[in-house]
Amino acid sequence: MVVDPVCGATVDKTTSHVSDYQGQHYYFCSEDCKQEFEDDPERYVDWGGNTLFGSA
Q1: What is the mean pLDDT of the chain?
Q2: CA torsion angle for 30, 5, 21, 40 (degrees, to 10)?
Q3: pTM of whole model > 0.70?
Q4: From residue 2, how far is each of 15, 44 by CA, in Å?
Q5: Phi, psi of 37 (to 5 degrees)
Q6: Which single residue of 5, 24, 28, 47 has CA 20 to 30 Å from 16?
Q7: What one-character-per-residue DSSP string does 17-32 give?
Q8: Where in the chain are the domains?
Q9: How far apart are CA 14 and CA 45, in angstroms?
Q10: CA distances from 9 to 4, 51 (A)
């Protein structure tokens, strides 16, 4: 299980809502969260690859 960097929901890595950004995989609870992330990924990821809710 991982944490959705947009809303903080716990997500199974088998989800179909996945985005790659700067060599990291990010997992989302919904297409809406995935799209919000893709619209502005730097809002949710710092330079170390960490997200608002912890390590990606």
Answers
A1: 88
A2: 90
A3: yes
A4: 10, 15
A5: -60, -50
A6: 47
A7: -EEEETTEEEE-SSHH
A8: 2-46
A9: 21
A10: 5, 13
8's CB contacts (< 8 A; 6+ apart) are: 52, 53
- Report the distance separating Cα 5 and Cα 45, nearest Å: 8
- CA gap 6, 30 in Å, rounded: 10
Confidence of residue 8 (pLDDT cuts 50, 70, 90): very high
Tokens of 32: 């809406």
At which residue do the structure tokens 């997500």 appear?
Answer: 11
CA distances from 13 to 16, 17, 26, 27, 47 (A): 8, 9, 9, 7, 23
Helix (H, G, I), strand (E, B) or coil at 34: helix
